[in-house]
Amino acid sequence: MEVRGSVLMSIDEFVKQRHAGQYSDWKDNLSADTQKLLGNVGAQKWYPVNEGVIEPTIQLCKLFYPDAKKGAWESGRYSAEAALKGVFKIFVLVSTPAFMLKRASRVMTTFYSPTNIEVIATTDKSMLLHLTELPINNELIEYRIGGWMEKALEICGCQNLQFDIKNSLSKGDPYTSYEITWD
Q1: Residue 35: pLDDT above 60?
Q2: What is the C-alpha separation between 73 and 93, in angstroms, rounded?
Q3: In the predicted model, what is the mean pLDDT of the chain?
Q4: What is the pTM (predicted TM-score) of this model?
Q5: Structural domain boundaries enclosing 154
Q6: Domain total for the chain?
Q7: Could you tell me if 158 and 105 lie in one domain?
Q8: What superkingdom heads the lineage (predicted)?
Q9: Do 177 and 153 belong to one domain?
């Protein structure tokens, strides 16, 4: 149950960029283990998911977002924005939403291990995805992934996105469902 260092780096950068005045407060509220990880992160190395994602996300939500799901979602959006730059942004810009999201499983396995996303249904304006495996069943990770997908779809040109999460691994369901529609 691991997470890639680039995810840790994006959470750290998110707090630095969006909540700069309280960055020290956020960092001071992290455990010694998480602070140590953040002090020496390698983007391509693997780290424990609890210390690498869950704890930092819980702390950023406690400090900045009364709705923890919203905080995790915004953190995921920021991560996509940071990751999909340069050559990757051009790839996303010329891709159809369905093509891009069908690659979501491959993309997520580069960030979270283990992870599995299955495309269940797709049309020109909608998609149903099932997240069937996560390194740990945690609602904040589910929302972080949803935020990442939303921002990636916006970069792809989708407008008026609607996400509905009806099932959740973190609530004991066999999968997390992302029902996505757009214009």
Answers
A1: yes
A2: 22
A3: 88
A4: 0.90
A5: 95-181
A6: 2
A7: yes
A8: Bacteria
A9: yes
